[in-house]
Design a protein that fits this description.
The chain is mostly helical. The chain is built from 34 helices and 2 strands. Helix 12 packs parallel to helix 14, helix 13 (about 305-320) runs parallel beside helix 15 and helix 15 runs antiparallel to helix 16 (about 365-385).
Length: about 725
């Protein structure tokens, strides 16, 4: 039956082919053709569904034995012995049509397209043009016949989730007749034959077009790999494989490249391909090759005076390529060409767009590859010095495009990591460019850059908060000195924010200032501990702890200052906490003075100079705090030393008013110094241990002499207008 139907189809199509080849009018209806088509449709019968039965492997669905010379492909349903469920027995019309299609394609299906298998030899299309033209018409007529060959259209049966097709078929749940189901399945097979015939027609048309444009010239422009692929491509590859699509893309690229200088001819070739081979070359392909042509034109411009024209062409090329991003065959090559032109902005735009397109399609690795082309283009600009004005302008423009071309977190993560890894130049670019994704990146990557980023863009309160966090981080390896520097920067930024009228910044400023005050106490403890216990392993361990993080004031006082008897640090801690304990402060100052006066390997003059220097130094640190630097207590203690050692050559040669002079050097007002000595005289008591009252003439004379000298100094200063 199938053979008879195939013969009838051949009789009917031959008449139409003759008229397509030799006249433009429709073929007349003759008795032979009409009778052949009536037999074809009537004798062909209808398809049926049958239960599966064992059958020899390799038997086709239409029932005929497979040819040993030509295999158009295995049955759509697979061998009957391997199938489960009902088997469709196609009609004789269907199988006759399949035999006829196979007969048309058999002569060329497995034939090589190229004449020679040697990729380096002169190449041309192996199949003669006359045969291709006749084959094209026969396939086109068959496609028309298939359009006339229609089964009643029936809808697919409703699905019953709990039942398989076997259950629905054999348990009575199948909602349509077996004949209708068989017709539906056969209609799908007929449509597949129609698609194969149409695709083969386009493949033949493509070969004819290539023949018209000197295929040997096109092949010579291919890469070595593409030339080799062309030499090995068969007609079946051209019709139905990705390998064939790849080779065709390379050939079409070479075809368009050969007419790059003739836009009119280029347009004509594109129109011909689009109308005759729409599945090989559609509207997207037109835009693709137009973009590639524009890039080639841009690369052909070598004159620096025409650089603007080249950049404009590159921009137009990218605009043409973006809608067909998924069809770009060699993005890496396009990026190299754009880079050679200096069109870095256009390169970044197309690379990021292609990456975003691939990422949306779920191809993350392909997206990363596309994004990497952007990084390669940016690298020389990032590493260039700041003195090159042209590079700086290009760098600024490129970064603007790079930061505004995508919303992909994968892309921004790659871009920011790249810039960060470029060292100072790249990190400065991160800081200089305002972008939400940069803020998130730096928040996780490097807080020391984040505060610079905030400060650069006027977000000073945010910068201050980050600096406080960085300084207070116990896991940070930063030493104490760097933490204090960060706190100082935090105070600076908080002041700027507070001066702008931000009430929240004013509150935060007080918090940071208090933190800095405690940190300075910690630094003094570290310095005094290192100075006083140099070489002590326990002290070295304590110093390492102090240098590792910031402590609270209570931890510093009880765990370090008081434990190690660090007098200066104890005074500083009392000052910081504003805790008043006059007896404790007096005892601490007594220890300080005593330590200087009893220092070994020093002369009296050296001890006195050291004492004065230390008092002045501490006074400048603690004054005007009445807690750590009580003027009355310190002045009285120093005058006691002065009076008790007045016979020493060192003290005898010192100015009688050296205590008052030192207090003035510290910045104590003369009025406070006069009040000190007036209090001494009014209390009629100079020293704790040696003099009980002003009955001691020497003590009275000493105190009065100093007071008079201070008064004269005050009068002299007033006369000078100070």
């Amino acid at each position: 039956k199938s053979q008879t139907c195939a013969m009838c189809l051949g009789l009917a199509t031959e008449n139409r082919v003759q008229h397509r080849l030799y006249t433009h009018v429709p073929p007349p209806t003759n008795a032979v053709a009409s009778a052949a088509m009536r037999v074809f449709f009537k004798f062909g019968g209808t398809p049926t569904l049958e239960l599966p039965q064992a059958a020899p492997a390799g038997t086709f669905a239409f029932g005929g034995a497979p040819s040993s010379h030509f295999d158009i492909g295995r049955s759509v349903m697979g061998p009957e012995s391997e199938r489960k469920g009902p088997i469709v027995r196609h009609s004789g019309s269907h199988d006759g049509m399949l035999l006829h299609l196979a007969g048309l394609l058999e002569p060329v299906w497995m034939e090589f397209v190229a004449l020679s298998r040697d990729a380096n030899e002169f190449q041309k299309i192996a199949v003669k043009r006359e045969f291709l033209v006749r084959l094209r018409e026969k396939l086109a007529v068959l496609a028309d016949i298939i359009d006339e060959y229609k089964f009643p259209v029936v809808s697919a049966p409703k699905e019953t989730p709990s039942k398989s097709i076997q259950d629905r078929l054999y348990d009575g749940l199948f909602q349509m007749k077996k004949t209708e189901e068989a017709q539906r399945m056969e209609a799908a097979s007929v449509n597949a034959m129609r698609a194969l015939a149409s695709r083969a027609v386009e493949a033949v048309e493509l070969l004819n077009i290539l023949s018209d444009h000197q295929p040997h010239r096109l092949v010579s422009k291919l890469s070595a790999e593409d030339r080799s692929d062309f030499a090995q491509m068969r007609f079946c590859d051209l019709v139905a494989s990705d390998f064939g699509v790849k080779v065709v893309s390379a050939l079409l690229e070479a075809l368009f490249a050969s007419y790059a200088d003739d836009p009119t001819l280029l347009q004509s070739v594109g129109d011909s391909l689009r109308s005759r081979c729409p599945t090989y070359f559609g509207t997207a392909d037109v835009e693709l090759h137009r973009g590639l042509t524009l890039i080639r034109q841009a690369c052909a411009i070598r004159s620096p005076e025409r650089r603007g024209e080249a950049l404009s062409l590159a921009k137009q090329a990218v605009a043409a390529l973006k809608p067909v991003a998924q069809s770009i065959p060699d993005l890496a090559g396009i990026c190299r060409q754009l880079r050679s032109v200096g069109a870095v902005d256009s390169l970044i735009e197309i690379a990021v767009f292609c990456g975003s397109t691939a990422e949306k399609a779920g191809s993350i690795e392909k997206a990363r590859t596309c994004y990497s082309y952007t990084l390669e283009a940016l690298e020389p600009l990032v590493l260039s010095g700041p003195d090159n004005a042209a590079d700086n302008a290009m760098k600024k423009s490129a970064l603007r495009v790079a930061l505004g071309s995508s919303s992909s977190k994968v892309y921004y993560q790659m871009l920011f990591n790249f810039l960060y890894d470029q060292g100072r130049n790249g990190r400065d670019l991160l800081v200089d460019n305002l972008h939400d994704e940069i803020e998130d990146f730096l928040d996780k990557k490097d807080m020391s850059l984040l505060w610079r980023y905030y400060a650069k863009h006027g977000l000073h309160l945010n910068a201050s908060a980050v600096l406080l966090t960085v300084a207070s981080d116990p896991k940070s390896p930063d030493p104490l000195s760097l933490r204090i520097n960060n706190l100082a920067s935090a105070i600076h930024n908080a002041k700027i924010a507070a001066n702008s009228g931000d009430d929240q910044a004013a509150v935060f400023l007080r918090e940071v200032t208090d933190k800095m005050d405690v940190a300075k106490v910690q630094l003094r403890i570290l310095q005094e501990l290192t100075r006083s216990f140099n070489g002590d392993p326990d002290a070295a361990a304590a110093a390492q702890e102090l240098n590792s993080r910031l402590f609270t004031l209570s931890e510093l006082y009880n765990g370090y200052a008081r434990k190690w008897k660090l007098t200066e640090s104890e005074l500083d801690a009392l000052r910081c906490s504003n805790y008043r304990d006059e007896e404790l402060v007096r005892s601490l100052w007594c220890e300080i003075i005593s330590a200087e006066l009893t220092a070994e390997s020093s002369t009296d003059s050296q001890r006195l100079a050291s004492l004065r220097a230390r008092v002045i130094g501490l006074g400048r640190d603690f004054h005007p705090s009445p807690v750590a630097f009580p003027i009355d207590t310190i002045g009285e203690l120093l005058e006691e030393v002065h009076f008790s050692r007045r016979s020493s050559p060192a003290f005898r040669s010192a100015p009688p008013t050296f205590v008052a002079d030192d207090l003035a050097t510290i910045g104590v007002p003369l009025s406070d110094i006069m009040r000190l000595y007036r209090g001494i005289l009014e209390r009629q008591r100079l020293f704790e241990n040696e003099v009980e009252s002003w009955g001691d003439e020497a003590a009275q004379r000493h105190a009065c002499g100093v007071a008079v000298a201070v008064a004269r100094a005050a009068v002299a200063a007033a006369r000078k207008g100070e």
